[in-house]
Structures are given as structure tokens and as C-alpha cells.
Amino acid sequence: VLIAVGRDACTRNIGLQTIGVKINEKNGKVPVNDEEQTNVPYVYAIGDILDGKLELTPVAIQAGRLLAQRLYGGSSRKCDYINVPTTVFTPLEYGSCGYPEERAIDEYGKQNLEVYHTLFWPLEWTVPGRDNNTCYAKIICNKQDNNRVIGLHVLGPNAGEVTQGFAAAIKCGLTKELLDETIGIHPTCAEVFTTMDITKSSGQDITQKGC
Fold first, then answer.
1. From CA 153, how far away is CA 100, in angstroms rounded?
2. Using an 8 Å Cβ cutoff, are 101 and 151 in contact?
3. Would you please indicate which residues are annotated as catalytic (active-site) residues?
4. Burial class of residue 135 (count of CB atoms within 10 Å of its CB; 0-12, 13-18, 19+)
5. How confident is the model at residue 173, as a pLDDT?
């Protein structure tokens, strides 16, 4: 049984209309600029209430901290809503950081991207003989920026742990060359990102015959 409990933006009865703060009438969420400022200059919004932003508690905490530092600490740092590591904790975890492929194409153009991907077989799956072509890893690189990694995706055991580690590298400007130069820890699932050599555009087979 799957129960999906959504989140409502309860903004219609708190007086925003009195001071002229605009909301998205479809979902009640509040549009803001890149500094979390609403259309009313002295009103800010952070967290799940933001229109078009991620509904994640750590994102809200980070955005609130940075907003306070900008307002009262002389900082100019803004919240990065793109390179946010996140995981779906299904029995086979899915983790991602950065752009999904479709949005990356919209943002940069397909001709400016190189996508590397592969299926992989976790070591712990070899003994029970579980399917060796279920887990998947993918990185999206910007060819116009030294093949910088702008999206990372992994479907497999402990994907959350894997994604959290690579998220820091992505924030530091991780490139495909740096991944290739990184020595992998064998046998781990994360090492698959250090050995990728098949591009999606090549159409080559990515199925695996061993771990």
C-alpha cells in the first residue's frame, strides 16, 4: 500500500493580499527572485512555500541561514537550488544531484552535453545471483565548460550515501577528467563513476556481465 501525503501551501488566509504579496493561484506558493525576495521588497519567503523550488527540509534550513547572513551579516551568498543532493528511499534507492537530463538539455542544448552512463552489478548481489543489470549510473557533462559534471544520477544500494559524497565534489566543480583520474575503491558501487567510458550518444551496449 502506497500512501502519498502531499504538502499544501496555506497562504490564502494569512493576509498576504493585504500587503500585495503575489502567490501562484494554482498552488498557493510564493514566487521569489534568486534572493528569496517576493514582489514586495521587504517580504521574503523560504522553504517549501517557494514556487518551483524543492520541498526539502535541508534546503529550507540552508536558504534561511543564507538569507539571515545576507540581511544582517553583510554576506552576498545565495542558496544553490540546482546542486542539491537528494534521494528517494525506495527498496532500491535512487539518488541525484544537479540537473536531470531533460532540464539540462533545455538549459544548455543537447549539442553542448555529453552523457555517460552504465548499468552495474553490486558485489553483494553476486552471491544471491540477483539481476546484474538493474542498477544504473549516469553523469551529465557540459562540453562547453571543460566537461564539468552538471548532473549525477544513481540507482542502486546506498544511493543516498553515494550521492552525498559526490555532491561536495560537484559543488567544487567536478569534471569528467577528474573523475577519470580518481582511483576507485573496489568493490564499491560508487567506483562506477570513476570508470565510465560509454556515452549515451554512442548507442553502445551498457549491460554488465560481472561486478
1. 8
2. yes
3. 186
4. buried
5. 97
